[in-house]
Amino acid sequence: MISLFPYQRQAVDAIHAAHRRGMKRPAISAATGAGKTIMFATAIDESQERALVIAHRKELIDQAAQKIGFVIDPSEIGVVMADRNQPRRPVVVASIQTIANPQRLGQLGQFGMVVIDEAHHAASPTYRKVLAALGVGPQLPTKALGVSATWDRADNKGLDDVFEDIVFEVGIEQLIASGHLADVRAIAIETTLNVTGVPGNGDGDFNTEALSREIVESDYADTLANAVRDHAFDRTSLVFAPNVRTAELFAAALNQVGVTATWVSGETPKTEREQAIADLAAGRIKAIVNCAVFTEGTDIPKVDAIVMGRPTASRALYQQMAGRGLRNYPGKTNCLIIDLVGVAGRLELQTAASLLGGKPRKDATTSIASFRDLIDDDEAMERLLEGRSGPDVKGELGQEFTQTAREIALIDRTRMAWTQIDISSFSLPAGSEGQIIIDEQTDGTYRVTRYGIDRSREELAVGLDIGYAQGVAESFVRQAGSGALVNPNAKWRRVPATPKQIETLLKLRIPHDPETVTKGEASDLISEKLGKQAIRQIKQGDRYARAS
Fold first, then answer.
1. Angle, alpha carbons 200-191-198 (nearest 5°)
2. Average confidence score pLDDT of the chain
């Protein structure tokens, strides 16, 4: 059984409590990266009822089935989607498009609980019809659960007649502050784009084709490419574009300024999309431009720059795009969000301020100057949340695309000093407990192991994605009282190395300059060396175990 984080346990308990008191259709709101699938899988497992999980995209179906398997025996999980049909398993993960077919819906049988993933879509007629057939709705008997990170809809269609109440909420700010999501930094880059004449699409956002025409006819693509080159060249970037035409344009502009990039869309074959993600993760390219692909359910934890090349008036869509960069990854200090802002008209532009509940802006021509002191500066926080400017908030974009926007912290949070041992293994010191090692398994999941000073081994968790594995490791270190040891900003890291550290560096034959090496640098060098030794021992043990 996978260990839950405290907030996940609270979410599951809130679901059970709602059902016990007679609420048939509760919902939970959890930010991207909170582990929503683990939450509802645990609720299903503990309810001991047959369950159906509904989602609307293939990637969401596959990911849900895989992650539910962290909690429930995979042999009990079936998938109903297109030509895949396992309708009688104890837990079924189904595509809404497939089970909208009455024949496929009729094969499913009865369920004790129906879970709707990305449940902000559930107000649509297709969902309502399917849910009613499954016995979910007012005065109907089947229990349900709605799960989403973004409950507000751009089209203002209500969800309150689909779900009764949100019984648990955990937001981006809370998860960043607690270390369960990556820190966030943000800059606003001014552009000459003027969308005052772009019509709406009927759902509260911009018409995609009209928006694309404005972008193509302006210098927006060049501005975007220069922004990525100047502010995110050494990062792993995910760029959002309105449509295929602009995705191609952005990728070409990025490559022209030396930022290696490719583009994908919903029409790109799955194998090509997977190859692009693999190339990005391995560092063979620096950026992927996408349209209509990576807004929901896509996990690329290494991404540490999100480029908003798709202006939007939808807070939900903006949060979905930003959320793609918030998952933890060893060695990832923060995620940079690059807002490319222009002049808006009737519809209001969303910016990074919306992540903390700030208002959208009609006049988005100024950059946000500083979020670093927001937690301690009530007046600055108030300006941000109200969408107002303050002193020194201007950022200029000159004729030669000289950008003066500053990179600034949304939330200032200490990260732990991870050491990358090889392409898929990481180590973290744990004081007297030894080291915590994360290493990738043959199935693409990650294992968390404590490797003791006495060379003992203790598996803390297996079968996790990289972000969840990092969370398990960091929670262990905090509970062991070793947080100060792995704080990368601790003052002790900047003072000269101790004689004992120099002795250890020499003993381990680690190259260093004894005159200039600091305690922090020495600690990192020693951790890397010991981590490599630990990985060798752990993998040697794996080989012995397989041989026996």
1. 15
2. 81
Average pLDDT over residues 278-282: 92
Task: Answer yes or no: same fold for 6-170 and 176-409.
Answer: yes
Q: What percent of the chain has a predicted confidence (pLDDT) above 90?
A: 37
For residue 307, the model assigns a pLDDT of 95
Of the candidates 14, 40, 51, the one whose C-alpha atom is nearest the C-alpha of residue 147 is 40
Single out the residue of 270, 334, 328, 343 nearest to residue 471, CA to CA.
Answer: 328
Decide if 238 contacts 287 (C-beta within 8 A).
yes
**Structure-token match 């907030």, residue found:** 7
Instruction: Note the pTM of the prediction, 2 decimals.
Output: 0.70
| Residue indicated by tokens 């175990």 | 545
Instruction: Say how far apart CA 258 and CA 238 lie, in whole Å.
Output: 16
The fold of the 6-170 domain, in CATH, is Rossmann fold (3.40.50)
Count of CB atoms situated within 10 Å of the CB of 327: 25
Query: What are the structural domain ranges in the chain?
Result: 6-170, 176-409, 419-547
- 328 and 260 Cβ atoms separated by less than 8 Å: no
Phi, psi of 151 (to 5 degrees): -85, -20
The residue type found at 99 is I
Over 80: is that where the pLDDT of 103 sits? yes
Torsion of the alpha carbons at 228, 230, 232 and 238, rounded to the nearest 10? 0
Phi-psi region of 275 (alpha: psi -120 to 50; beta: other; left: phi over 0): alpha
- Strand stretches in 118-154, DSSP E: 143-148
Domain 176-409 has CATH 3.40.50.300: yes
Parallel/antiparallel/unpaired status of strands 143-148 and 26-30: parallel
Q: Report the distance separating Cα 192 and Cα 172, nearest Å.
A: 31
CB-based contacts of 346-349 (< 8 A; 24+ apart in sequence): 346/196, 346/200, 347/195, 347/198, 347/200, 347/204, 347/205, 347/206, 347/313, 348/313, 349/311, 349/312, 349/313
